[in-house]
Write a structure and sequence with these properties.
The protein has a single domain, classed as P-loop containing nucleotide triphosphate hydrolases (Rossmann fold, 3-Layer(aba) Sandwich). It is globular. By secondary structure, it is α/β, with parallel strands linked by helices. It contains 12 helices and 7 strands.
Length: 281
């Protein structure tokens, strides 16, 4: 069964989609079977992996949430044979409105993923920058959630709200939900503030913070405009190396040290991090 990871932070511009695209690509490059679910109406994770919107206007994640299609029917291949994308379009905005009065509205994505989960090692969900019904669906479907957090002054702003929401989801909807970890992004080595933020977050959250820290990197910014992940666009860049480090760290944490290509994933997930309710937990 797949490890289902929701990549969430209601604050925009923190690197959610960049992380979703590049982490999924790096995991696939390691030989893992990966499905990336684009749950953001902007559809940037879809276009960031080379998908063209006109190719999936009638078959995308919106149609899955309203019950017209299955994930298997709408998934699209990428340049890596191990990586598939469930694409999104702006139509997804309408799903939040259409599902307001629907039964089991918060479980739509969970039920859709359950039908394909055995086919993958990972299902990553790229969330919109909000805590609405789409993000609620993602948290309800996920085993864990990963929080990209920028190395800037307002880094902790909104994080407590996300943790509170996740805590409510855990209590009322998805008792298995855990925090996968906090990923520090947009690190500027020459900026003293970045170092201070890293120190503060590591002090508050300890081993819940990934060792891999994603720097500000021009190549990371350029890659989406070419419809490529960073390891396809510029594999020798520092951004590519750091996302490869993150993929190795995550893969080792979940599946153990034997995470090389062509080795089957174990049937049980080990060493799952415990859920964090707040910055002092």
């Amino acid at each position: 069964m797949a490890r289902i990871i929701c990549i969430a932070n209601q604050k925009g511009g923190v690197g959610k989609t960049t992380t979703s695209v590049n982490l999924s690509s790096c995991l696939a490059a390691r030989g893992r079977r990966v499905l990336l679910v684009d749950l953001d109406p902007q559809g940037n994770a879809s276009s960031g992996l080379g998908l063209k919107k006109y190719e999936y206007q009638e078959e995308n994640i919106y149609h899955v949430l309203i019950g017209e299609k299955t994930l298997d029917e709408i998934k699209r291949p990428t340049s890596n044979p191990n990586l598939f994308v469930a694409p999104a379009t702006p139509d997804l905005v309408g799903a939040e409105i259409e599902l307001v009065d629907a039964q089991r509205r918060e479980y739509r994505l969970r039920e859709a993923i359950a039908s394909v989960s055995p086919d993958y090692d990972y299902v990553l969900i790229d969330c919109p920058p909000s805590l609405g019904l789409l993000t609620l669906n993602a948290l309800a479907a996920a085993n864990t959630f990963l929080v990209p957090l920028q190395c800037e002054y307002y880094a902790l702003e909104g994080l407590s709200q996300l943790l509170t929401t996740a805590g409510l989801v855990k209590k009322n909807i998805n008792p298995e939900l855990r925090i996968e970890g906090i990923l520090l992004t947009m690190f500027a080595a020459s900026n003293n503030l970045s170092h201070q933020v890293v120190s503060e977050i590591q002090t508050h959250f300890g081993d819940k913070v990934f060792k891999a820290i994603i720097p500000r990197n021009v190549r990371l910014s350029e890659a989406p405009s070419h419809g490529q992940s960073i390891i396809d666009y510029e594999p020798r860049s520092v951004g590519a190396l750091k996302y490869q480090e993150l993929a190795e760290e995550l893969d080792s944490r979940i599946y153990g040290v034997q995470s090389q290509i062509d080795q089957p994933a174990p049937t049980q997930v080990e060493n799952k991090p415990e859920f964090v309710d707040g910055p002092n937990a």
